[in-house]
Amino acid sequence: MMDLGACLRYYKRTDIQKAMLQAAQDREVSVRYLDGGFGKRPDILENNSDVIENVKQKASSFHCSEEIWVNPMQISTGMKKDELIKLRKGWDLVLDIDCPIWELSKITTWLFIEALKAHGIKSISLKFSGNKGFHIGVPFKSFPSIVPGKDIPIKDYFPDGPRRIAAYLVNYIEKNLIKTDDNTITFGNKVKYTFDELMKITGKSLSELTHLERNGKRVKSEKVIEKNKYEYMCNLCGHSETKTEYREYIPCSKCSNTFVKPLQTNQINSKKEAGIIERKFDALSVVEVDTILIAPRHLYRMVYSLHEKSGLASIPIDPSRILLFEKTEANPDTLQLSNLVFLDDSKTLHGEAENLLVKAFDFNPIIENEEEERRIKGAFSKELTEQITQKIPEELFPPCIKLLLQPLTDGKKRAMFILLNFMQSVGWNYDEMKERIEAWNKTHPEPLRENLIYTHLNYHKVQNKVLPPNCPNFATAQYYKDMGVCRPDGLCARIKNPVQYAKKRAWILNQELNNSKKGRKKEDKKQQGNRKEKTSKEQQNGISDKLDSRA
Question: What average pLDDT score do residues 38-64 get?
């Protein structure tokens, strides 16, 4: 736990102050205090002494924007998108790799660096976040002035551009840099783990770490694997076994150290010909990139800032030695500054990231919010989108959202981000969201700060709808699984976003109500007809009786 004395000793160093001032140029800056509170926004660092003066006021860490501004002090909470665009000069691509398992965090960061290199990018910066993860940076100068194929200045392509790039890189890594060979997973032809090793260090089950494929395409249900039977026989003891998954070799359950191949009677000439279902490693089960960072006015920990939980410094690292980096290098008491600069663009070739931007733009799963909304609307019948004119009640929320609305110990900020986007997308207004989030926050053992909640609420008040992250295996992959709230029911398999789930449930309920009304109307008409018929017969009988009496 940091104290004021430790902060003062560290931040009074002029070399630290100078490096932080350099990183703060044209960026919004905010401080966090030792008591957990945050400083005013917007704010900036104008000179070296601003650093130590903030620390004297019990500031423990400093955070800056990935956006580069004409004048950060002209920004105000609640500004509209067009107003922010006018003030924004540019943005840096900052990928936040935050994995709770240290070795996997380094491997994930290394994979992203390799993916960026594969797209011709040389200006790659890297820094330790100060606790469990890393920040990978690509300076704004790396991108072309105009988005290729679109008449959009690159400075205005935020946050859509970075979001597209992040999702594309995850997909690229999964397809090109991670290989599954029987029971071994190879990361970038360099680091290998077995499934048993990954299960042990991650605490995840085999089904959470893998998915099934047939001929390169994912198979949704594991039940289909029962259709395949592969017979194996040990050539030493003669013991035979039948398996439902294809393996090049399997261990004999009777003879240790003996491995066998499938019997030739299977007549398997190729995996494709046989339609073999294979278990493949799901890269997104361990490869994590936090796209919440990629949002307007979101801040990340500044280079050389301390981290409250670890007491370590957020220091720049040579990207080529990420796998060798150890946390002890970030000890503030022994830290020696290097000549490394995070997001240094002094040698950057303008436009070197154009290839990456083009490929990310062509990557289908990540599309702009308007396109995403149109895709969702087209997923179901026309009635689904037209009949929902009021807010969808909680009773119709998907399992993941209901679980996020329960008391939480970790991931509260991420949960709030998801909940607000979700509720706004299913018809909740500002006051309704405010009331529900305030009530939700009170249920946590350690509630979020009120000013953080109101900042997010005010942002949603003025911004257009933004969908929450997609479900696993789609655009934003692992949010709900990583938070332990992905508990799919029967409807979940047919939707790609939690908003779709709620809309579908509302539409189904609406259809049931309409059918029920139609049924009642039909029954009422039938009963009305019976009454008329009965009345008519009674009238006829009365007329007959009168005629008989007259006769």
Answer: 94
Query: Could you tell me which of 139, 106, 120, 54 has the C-alpha nearest to residue 341?
Result: 139
Pair of tokens at residue 212: 């099934």
Report how far apart, in Å, the C-alpha atoms of 48 and of each of 4, 69, 314, 315, 341 are.
19, 20, 18, 18, 17
Specify the amino acid at residue 211.
Answer: H
Burial of 281 (0-12, 13-18, 19+ CB in 10 A): buried
- Average pLDDT for the chain: 80
Separation between Cα atoms, residue 371 and residue 426, nearest integer Å: 17
pLDDT value of residue 486: 82
The predicted structure's pLDDT at residue 365: 47
For tokens 């077995």, what's the residue? 194
Give 196-217 pLDDT, tens digit per residue: 898 898 888 887 788 777 766 6
Strands 250-251 and 125-128: unpaired
Buried b or exposed e, range 395-418, using 16+ CB within 10 angstroms:
ebbbbbbebbbeebeebbebbbbb
Stated as kind and residue range, the H or E segment containing 62 is strand 59-65
| Single-letter code of the amino acid located at 172 | Y
Q: Give the DSSP letter string of 122-167.
A: ---EEEE-SSSEEEEEE-GGGS-SB-TTS--BGGG-TTHHHHHHHH
Q: How far apart are CA 298 and CA 162, in angstroms?
A: 13
- Helices of type H across 442-497: 450-462, 479-482
On whether the pTM is more than 0.70, the answer is: no
The single-letter code of the amino acid at 336 is Q
pLDDT of residue 264: 44
What interhelical angle do 498-550 and 369-379 show, nearest 10?
A: 40
User: 3-class SS at 436?
Assistant: helix
The token pair at 153 is 């200045």
Q: Check: CB of residue 56 under 8 Å from CB of residue 12.
A: no
For residues 122 and 113, give the distance between their C-alpha atoms in angstroms, rounded to a whole number. Answer: 10
Mean pLDDT confidence for 426-450 = 89
The string of DSSP letters for 66-107 reads SEEES-GGG--TT--HHHHHHHEEEE-EEEEEE-SSHHHHHH
Query: In this structure, what token pair is assigned to residue 164?
Result: 């597209």
Are residues 116 and 187 in contact, defined by beta-carbon separation less than 8 angstroms?
no
> Which is it for the CA torsion 360, 363, 365, 369, positive or negative?
positive
Q: Report which DSSP code applies to 327.
A: G
pLDDT at 548 > cutoff 60: no
CB atoms within 10 A of CB 51: 28
Neighbouring CB atoms inside 10 A of 179's CB total: 14
The residues, any chain, with a CB within 8 Å of residue 527's CB and separated by 6 or more, are none
Q: What are the C-alpha distances in Å from 171 to residues 23, 47, 116, 359?
A: 31, 42, 13, 11
Structure tokens at 326: 């150890």
Please check whether residue 448 is in contact with residue 413, taking contact to mean a CB–CB distance below 8 angstroms: yes
> Hey, which residues does 135 pair with through a beta bridge?
96, 127
CB 424 within 8 A of CB 329: no
